[in-house]
Amino acid sequence: xxxxxxxxxxxxxxxxxxxxxxxxxxxxDRARAEVxxxxxxxxxxxxxxxAVVLVVGGIAVATAGGDDGADEPPPxxxxxxxxxxxxxxxxxxxxxxxxxxxxxxxxxxxxxxxDASGTACYPIAAVSPDGQEIGGGGDHERGWVGRPIAxxxxxxxxxxxxxxxxxxxxxxAGVEPGTYDYGNGYVQETIAAEGTTVTVGTDxxxxxxxxxxxxxxxxxxxxxxxAIPEPRVGAASDRRGGLIRAKVxxxxxxxxxxxxxxxVELEPAAAxxxxxxxxRAPGVSRSCDPVDGPxxxxxxxxxxxxxxxxDVLDRTAVYRMECGGSIRLDDGPPRxxxxxxxxxxxxNGIPAVVHGPTGGKGAMIDSFIGPQG
Length: 373
Prior knowledge:
There is one protein chain. This protein is α+β, with helices and mostly antiparallel strands. The protein has 2 domains: 193 residues, no CATH class; 141 residues, no CATH class. Helix 2 crosses helix 4. It is globular.
């Protein structure tokens, strides 16, 4: 037998072994699920002692360091053994708060969550996934994502005077890590993660495990900033390549700066419309410069193709919410915050997270939370 015949037989044997190996999806599912359980266990035990609940008006804290990411599955693809397949989870959306992210079903809406006092305002799906206000007192059957931001002055003491009727995720709620049984089939579990908390309440244990296994560090926008960033012009329009990615980052003022309250990817076409509308907006006609700065601001950040070497490829518009609102596109005078410049990006969770201009939302009634009442 010559060397070539030996090699041929060895290859045939290896191929036969490979064909016999069990590489079906359930094996991969179980392995990924175990990774999720190990990761959540590390946060529950290792981070609980150092976790600080972040709430509106509270003290800002530095984002806690997370895992090194070596064993983290990609966002939206961490199934449990009894949960949906990875292909189904790829349609889930990712929500952000401070330094943490979590994946939720795509049809969940937006509502409130308890603050440090245990008071939750609008603990129900009050805004749809696409940012439309849900009439009739909200959707009692739809799951929702809540933040400790008051969307109404009608509030409830949680859990003493409230009982869930639909599944939910709370980000940064005033809830200590642990579990709570409401006695109606719903069990609430809170874990410490990335310097804040994530709470999941549902009557489906597999769904609760699935969502908690997706918790990880938020990487879409900076988790907190000490001051409002300056706008960035980037390359001149006649030298700028096509817009390939855009994102919206919303921030709320805390004791020592501003904390991320919401982040979402934006379609490039919508970003271009927003920039164009901002460029057409008139200059601010009234003088207003609060000593402490605005309580909220939003960044629209776009990344462009590199068609010319050494060009700056990013552009950032800054939307400040004080005194009727203003837009900063460059180092020139600020422009007015207009409905046309807001509508392209004030979608999804923004109407449930950002209160909007302090002078009243006026014509932007569908874009922000607005005055309470």
